[in-house]
Amino acid sequence: MKYKPVKKLNELAATAICGNDISSSCLYVSALAIIYAGQYAWLALLIVAAVLFLFRKIYGEVVGALPLNGGAYNALLNTTNKSTASLAATLTLLSYMATAVISASEAMHYVHSIWHEIPVIIATIFLLGIFMGLTILGIGESSKVAIFIFITHLVSLTLLAGFCGFYLFQNGFETFFSNYDQPIEGGIKQALFFGFAAAMLGISGFESSANFVEEQDEGVFPKTLRNMWIVVSVFNPLMAFLALAIIAMPDVQNNQEALLSFMGGRVGGNWLSTLISIDAALVLSGAVLTSYVGVSGLLERMTLDRILPQFLLKKNNRGSSYRIMIMFFIMCISILMITKGELGALAGVYTISFLLVMTLFGFGNILLKLKRSKLPRPVKASPIAIILAIIAVVTAIVGNAIMNPPYLGVFLEYFLPAFLFVLIMLNRTKLLKAILGLIKYMFEPVQKSVQKINFKILRLIEEINSQEFVFFTNDDDVATLNKVMLYVSKNEHTKKAKSCISD
């Protein structure tokens, strides 16, 4: 089959595909940061932006030296071994699955808030199916949809920020100062610690660009990192600051699931609230597309490395690995059915797996410096920056574990079976050899007994057939002798025959 030549993604297309995921974070991370950090939420989000700035060079160095799909998996594969790399791959896969299901479900919840007749679970399955079909059509077609969603989202956020600015110009900052004077439980340090841990979820999607770098045009990858960092650094702290300046703290907590939509209604009326809800549904759908594109690059790389079954590499005439898309769709649907649409548990999987992937990528950079120092790379991250970035992400993991202890248990429930499957596939030849050895061990005594019995039976048959048959005839006519031999072969147990000719 001849494949159509795949056009490489330009800066806008590549940024849009991964940017929809990370830019959608302002829809929920602003409220989360305010709940845990209170009036210092915007500061916690600025700290997150600083950490993400460190990761720009960390990702840029690794992918610049090893420009292959796979992200953290690729980094560890080239510096450690397949087992360690498979750990990163499993975490990345879980992160994408959780992102796809949560984003699709939340998008449909926003649609449901506008159109109450829509069944959320069925609509979620339908949305996941739409983006499966879109990615099967090819990354070029996917990028067109991603660009439309990304630009619409940025315009919507800019419009919301403009109306909020006009509202503050008219009404002043009384609400902000009132919120600022609220007492902080545990002090500023504790507020910033938990606020930072919660706000780190706002950079989910930053790792996606590294998973489809081979589909990007030359020099595009570092630009996607820069563009995502700018979006997160501007809109996430800004939306948290505007929310604190416009909405009283109790109202933030009561409207955390659709905080920006509530802000739009406060400063612009129902039409702006509806517009933000539509935009939320669109950009969350774009995050589903990010998951499909990212997981396609990751699983295709793993299959090429013979970790996954080779039949997944089958491509259609557009050059898409459609079997990977179908498998990912089925996995997402299974999780949606298992959780029955209650996706709070998946938040734990999403949180821990994503942050662990970021941590492993940092370690991958360190190992790359130590083991592959001669590889050329366009940028270099300083060792201090890498250590600070890893410490920051580990701090976020600890903070989330303290805030939500059940998250670790739920994460392990999903991670252990997934990693076990990957390990089985990775070591399948050894396992098959072990099974053969076990079968031989179990059945060898039986085989020896069968051989002994077989030998005794053959000896008995030989003894029976060794008895001589004597027949008498009065001539040596060939026809007569032939009749005798036929009779003996059909009716006697012998291989010996002797004739006696009588006169």
UniProtKB/TrEMBL annotation:
<dbReference type="InterPro" id="IPR002293">
    <property type="entry name" value="AA/rel_permease1"/>
</dbReference>
<feature type="transmembrane region" description="Helical">
    <location>
        <begin position="40"/>
        <end position="59"/>
    </location>
</feature>
<feature type="transmembrane region" description="Helical">
    <location>
        <begin position="269"/>
        <end position="299"/>
    </location>
</feature>
<feature type="transmembrane region" description="Helical">
    <location>
        <begin position="320"/>
        <end position="339"/>
    </location>
</feature>
<feature type="transmembrane region" description="Helical">
    <location>
        <begin position="188"/>
        <end position="206"/>
    </location>
</feature>
<feature type="transmembrane region" description="Helical">
    <location>
        <begin position="227"/>
        <end position="249"/>
    </location>
</feature>
<dbReference type="Pfam" id="PF13520">
    <property type="entry name" value="AA_permease_2"/>
</dbReference>
<protein>
    <submittedName>
        <fullName>APC family permease</fullName>
    </submittedName>
</protein>
<feature type="transmembrane region" description="Helical">
    <location>
        <begin position="408"/>
        <end position="426"/>
    </location>
</feature>
<feature type="transmembrane region" description="Helical">
    <location>
        <begin position="380"/>
        <end position="402"/>
    </location>
</feature>
<keyword id="KW-0472">Membrane</keyword>
<feature type="transmembrane region" description="Helical">
    <location>
        <begin position="87"/>
        <end position="112"/>
    </location>
</feature>
<keyword id="KW-1133">Transmembrane helix</keyword>
<feature type="transmembrane region" description="Helical">
    <location>
        <begin position="146"/>
        <end position="168"/>
    </location>
</feature>
<feature type="transmembrane region" description="Helical">
    <location>
        <begin position="345"/>
        <end position="368"/>
    </location>
</feature>
<keyword id="KW-0812">Transmembrane</keyword>
<feature type="transmembrane region" description="Helical">
    <location>
        <begin position="118"/>
        <end position="139"/>
    </location>
</feature>
